[in-house]
Predict the structure.
Amino acid sequence: MKWLDEAVAAGHVTVAGHPSRIAVIDALRADRAGPVSLRLLRLSSADAPFTRRAALDLLSCAEAGSPWPEAAAAALARLADPDDEVRRRAAHLVVRAGGRDAGLRALGELTDPVVRTVLADHLQGSLAHLGEDPLPSVRFLARLEALRVAPVRQWPPLDGALLADAGAAAIHLDGVGGRWGRVLCGLGRERHVHALTARLLRDPVTRDIGAGLAREACHTWRAAPVALLPLLVRHCGPDVSPAMAEALTTASVSRAAMRAHGALFATVAVTPYPRPRHLFGSSSPPQGPVYDSATAAAILRAKPVDTGRLRHAPELFGALLDAGPLSFRQAAQLYNLTFKRPGRLQAVCAPLWLRHAGPTAAPRVLALMTPHLDAYGIGEYYAEGLARMGRRALPALPSLTALIERRTRIPVNDSTRDGETMLDESLLAAALAARRAILADAAPRLPPPTPERA
């Protein structure tokens, strides 16, 4: 096990994705009684705190499908460790390796607030009976758990108890505002979140909790940044705390909030969320090459009929359609690009198919496009496609309007919550641009003015 000792001592096993960490975790999951597991159990009581932390952290990475008494015993032995981080990791491992009963037993026997808070945090789903616990952080988690499933009539007393404990709970519990916000957002309590945020921000003791709550609201509801950005600016003070800076940056993702309060936001020393470059869309149309019909036809002749990819498809087929009808082979290529699979090519080729096939194809093309308007990564292409269709896309307006008028963010997938919020903002902007383009094209044309007679 020399290699394992060296990897722990060098810190390699603490680096996500490092080969030594991957090797250790694979060995743990393959055999809990193997040499790697046994060595880590011994290292959990090593002299160096760094080694103890690494060993407990790695032991927690083993599969948690069944109890692991040896790991639970090693973790219990470290719950009184002089190092805070060792105790935190040990508390996590007690619950992971020993299960609910072992965690609740330790929670009832110990008095260390750090350990008890971590135990409670990992016992969520089993805390409802601890609403009167002597430690504020444990009480707060227990009441959050109760609030999540409580009937409406029980909300006011739980709200009051949570508010009373929030400041003290934050001493030992990280992310109080975000945790509280996720529960309230899950219950759909938008107005209450705004009022509660304002109250928390007014008190310096709970200001960072209010910032965390505001950030969660901005991640959940589209209207929250407009309502909360002025409050955040007003209460951030000359020195902006990290929690306030994060909340302000999140609120700056909202285009509506920045339109309404951009000048106010500029008065604080916080960097707004970076705007991605437009890849497409009415606000920044792509500038592809210009083809004549002969060149476009030659390029398409070199492609198979069932081609699944075609760079510059809009320019190629656009040149051919401008010159006249497509040949049978060209139409088959465009059909395959349009109807075979969803994605960017389908979105940009569908309006071209409508140009080729005529108005009778509109219902089929729209039925192809509208289900993907809120799709992560491709929804904006479909909105842009509808915009290009103009008045022929009028039947798609209900789908666009539903996307535009939803109060909550569209569920998407990104590495950060701010990134997911930005993706919703981009989908919303694309839908708004598409609706404007469709309505503008559908507006009745005014007849030219009659010249006045002399």
